[in-house]
UniProtKB/TrEMBL annotation:
It holds the Pfam family DAO. The chain crosses the membrane at residues 7-24. GO terms for molecular function: oxidoreductase activity. One of its GO terms (cellular component) is cytoplasm. InterPro entries: FAD-dep_OxRdtase, FAD/NAD-bd_sf. Residues 7-352 form the FAD dependent oxidoreductase domain. This is Sarcosine oxidase subunit beta. The lineage of its organism: Bacteria, Bacillati, Bacillota, Clostridia, Lachnospirales. PANTHER family: FAD-DEPENDENT OXIDOREDUCTASE DOMAIN-CONTAINING PROTEIN 1 (PTHR13847:SF287), SARCOSINE DEHYDROGENASE-RELATED (PTHR13847). Keywords: Membrane, Oxidoreductase, Transmembrane, Transmembrane helix. It comes from Anaeromicropila populeti. The keyword Membrane applies.
């Protein structure tokens, strides 16, 4: 088997699969390395939010571009229904402190052109009458939405393969190596690969891999858990979140609800190589559901699952060429925001790999922002 390619992508999540697709579509020879199975990490374990609201202004260009130009045509382009719904996002508040958080997020988003506004509790329940009276206000972005993360990852993977990308699973990347100052080799526990360009998009594992050539992306690993209910009568189509981002969810195409959240106990329960669910968080999420949606108090939980978030030090991703190591591109630290911007990130990474000027502004996401200032 040929162990060399023009571009080698480390990480077979939705970012890696999307990037492989956009590169292979342009005729670029691509290899994707994944230590487990395709989409096994956060790409198949998230809430499916496709939102612009509630984001740091530095990543808003990616989110806004994806919503305007990429998500609306993605199912048609990939030949698979990714269950994309553009029905808005309510980011909910229960206290005056929550309102203050949302007002700050809303004003910063409005300043860069996003159509989002604050609404009171009465207006919230006009949009979603199933919400309880505990909700006193929300931010409302009508152009936000949600999609199915597993189907989206699968669609990108299948189309990347059709276009010629090669995917190699079950190989763990151990080390990167430079040749004459440039990135050149990727060493796994099974083999050795060569490429002119390496894109590192392996979630939290990216930090350890980058460390092998003296590069560090300040990230920590955070556990989030999610659950899915049995199918319910159709209630609403909006994506939901909260001011403190401790609860999120939506109703899926076939009627089940997907909800996610955190108990704050992950630091004490997540010391494992693989993410595991706990009795703490599922019950915590359920209490939140009942406070927001009393109608769902009797809904049965079908299953729960958990996954790691690669939380960056300043809560926004690093998407950039690394000047110190020519040929190396990093895309990690997405802090739980990666799925909604995956089509835009894949587009930008393919452009960076081909030496093109990115068509979307990523100037606030540079690796160099963490360098010591002298």
């Amino acid at each position: 088997m040929n162990s060399s390619a023009e571009v080698l992508i480390i990480g077979g999540g939705v970012i890696g699969c999307a990037t492989a697709y956009y590169l292979a579509k342009k005729g670029i020879e691509v290899i994707v390395l994944e230590k487990n199975q395709i989409g096994e990490g956060g790409s198949s374990r998230n809430g499916g939010g496709v939102r612009q609201s509630g984001r740091d202004p530095r990543e808003l260009p990616l989110a806004m571009y994806a919503v305007e130009h990429l998500w609306p045509i993605l199912s048609e382009e990939l030949g698979m229904d990714v269950e994309y719904y553009k029905k808005g996002n309510l980011r909910l508040a229960k206290t005056p402190a929550h309102i203050k958080i949302l007002e700050g997020l809303t004003s910063r988003a409005q300043a860069v052109g996003l159509k989002v506004q604050m609404i009171d509790g009465e207006e919230v329940r006009k949009i979603n009458p199933h919400l309880s009276d505990e909700v006193i206000g929300a931010s409302w972005c009508p152009t936000d939405g949600h999609a199915n993360p597993m189907l989206t990852t699968l669609a990108y993977y299948k189309n990347a393969r059709k276009a010629g990308a090669r995917f190699i699973t079950g190989e763990k990347v151990l080390e990167l190596k430079k040749v004459k100052g440039r990135i050149r080799k990727v060493i796994t526990d099974h083999s050795e690969y060569e490429a002119e360009t390496v894109i590192l998009a392996a979630g939290f594992e990216s930090r350890k891999i980058a460390n092998t050539i003296g590069i560090d992306i300040p990230m920590q690993r955070v556990l989030l858990e999610a659950l899915v209910t049995e199918a319910q009568p159709k209630m609403f189509e909006q994506m939901l979140g909260t001011a403190e981002a401790d609860f999120y969810g939506h109703q899926s195409t076939h009627g089940s609800f997907v909800f996610g959240g955190s108990s704050g106990m992950d630091a004490y329960t997540s010391d494992y190589d693989r993410p595991v669910t706990t009795s703490f968080t599922a019950s915590c999420i359920c209490r939140g559901i009942m406070k927001y949606f009393p109608e769902l108090a009797e809904a049965k939980i079908v299953r729960t699952w958990s996954g790691w978030i690669d939380e960056c030090a300043d809560k926004v991703p690093v998407i950039d060429k690394v000047e110190e190591v020519p040929g190396l591109i990093v895309a990690c630290g997405f802090t739980g925001h990666g799925f909604g911007i995956c089509p835009a990130v894949g587009t930008v990474l393919s452009e960076l790999a081909m030496g093109e000027q990115p068509s979307i502004d990523i100037s606030g996401l540079k690796y160099g922002r963490f360098k010591a200032k002298i």
